[in-house]
Specification:
It is a single chain. By secondary structure, the protein is mostly beta strands. The strands form two sheets. A four-stranded antiparallel beta sheet has the order 1-2-3-4, with no helix packed on it. The chain has a three-stranded antiparallel beta sheet with strand order 5-6-7, with no helix packed on it. It is built from no helices and seven strands. 0% of the residues lie in helices and 54% in strands.
Length: 67
């Protein structure tokens, strides 16, 4: 699970990577990479997902939280 700079939450589930707005409403579902996603994180505008020992990257319009 990870959060972007607009406080949207991204959660890896059996349906895919689900995105929720800050109030908890579902925004959408991204297709998951093959295998079980065990980690999600943002770096700038890239969403990283680790599945079965491989890292997959999706370019996003959203950006991760500033640290």
């Amino acid at each position: 699970m990870t959060v972007d700079g607009s406080n949207r939450t991204y959660v890896a589930t059996n349906l895919g990577i689900q995105s929720f707005d800050p109030t908890g409403r579902l925004n959408g579902v991204f297709t998951s990479p093959p295998g079980r996603v065990t980690e999600l994180t943002f770096e700038e505008n890239r969403l990283y997902a680790r599945a079965d020992g491989k890292v997959f990257i999706r370019i996003m319009l959203a950006e991760g939280k500033k640290k």
